[in-house]
Amino acid sequence: MLQNYQDTMAVVRKFGKPDLFLTFTCNPSWSDILKSMEGVQRPEGRPDIIVRVFNMKLKELEEDICKHGIFGTVLAYIYVIEFQKRGLPHAHVLLTLDSESKIRTNDDIDKFVSAELPDPCTDLRNFQIMTKCMVHGPCVTININSPCMRDGQCCKRFPKQFKDDTEENVNGYPIYRRRATEPVQVGKYSIDNRWFVPYNPWSLKKFNAHITVVVRASVKSVQYL
Predict the structure, then answer these.
(1) pLDDT tens for residues 170-222?
(2) Closest CA to 28 of 54, 57, 61, 55
(3) Where exactly are the structural domains of the chain?
(4) Where do the Helitron helicase-like domain residues begin and end (predicted)?
(5) What is the 8-class DSSP label of residue 187?
(6) CATH number for the segment(s) 1-113+199-224
(7) pTM to 2 decimal places
(8) Any residues with CB less than 8 A from the CB of 30 and at least 6 apart, and which?
(9) What are phi and psi of 110, to 5 degrees?
(10) Mean pLDDT (whole number) for 81-90
């Protein structure tokens, strides 16, 4: 583990600190998984199939990022695969972009990352994926028993503030645009744009899974891996 960390820091020293931090989580409802079930089998009973399909999807995402350049030209690509308590694999990915692809302005951020629920009239597919895969919690007063709660507060600082425009905060991380809209019903909760994690619309639609995209990952992100 220490050797892996040192290797990763060597990459950071050579290519600079990461620009993007992605988390890609397996969706047990992927058709490639469900069609492989036999009889009364459920995905949770076939971890071999889950891992195989997830690795295929991860390789496809890697190709989209590194070969097709959905975020620009990538200088360095680092990832680790972990498993959640319920057995679903997920990957944490750090990307370092070349100088021409750096995400420098708020407009650049809005080009690649959104934290808002799309209009179902114009983007029904992403609306459905968002409400199923990209909601944080809810927590705080809506659900005080959420796993993210620490001493009465959300450790991820949800709900976020409404913002008409993307802004920089004092730590160098963006505060994503989250305009005030009418809440939608997700299960038994009524939620709005304050509760969605940031994502890339193109990759979300393609992979139909939980894929968070955070701009301006720091060197501390390496320790998270």
Answers:
(1) 677 899 999 999 999 998 889 999 999 999 999 999 999 999 999 976 666 77
(2) 54
(3) 1-113+199-224, 114-196
(4) 1-95
(5) T
(6) 3.30.70
(7) 0.92
(8) 53, 57, 208, 209
(9) -65, -25
(10) 84
Alpha carbon distance 179, 176 (integer Å): 10
Summarize pLDDT for 91-121 with one digit per residue, the tens: 999 999 999 999 999 999 999 999 999 999 9
The Cα 39–Cα 96 span in angstroms is 45
**Which own/partner pairs from 81-89 qualify as long-range (CB within 8 Å, at least 24 positions apart)?**
84/25, 86/44, 87/44, 87/47, 87/50, 88/25, 88/26, 88/28, 88/50, 89/25, 89/26, 89/50, 89/51, 89/54
The answer to whether 21 touches 92, Cβ cutoff 8 Å, is: yes
Q: What pLDDT score was predicted for residue 113?
A: 97
CA dist 13 and 134 (Å) reads: 33
Phi, psi values for residue 155, rounded to 5° = -70, -15
Beta bridge partners of 189: 186
The whole-angstrom separation of Cα 77 and Cα 62 is 9
Helix (H) or strand (E) holding 29: none
Please, is 94 exposed, middle or buried when counting C-beta atoms within 10 Å of its C-beta (0-12, 13-18, 19+)? Answer: buried
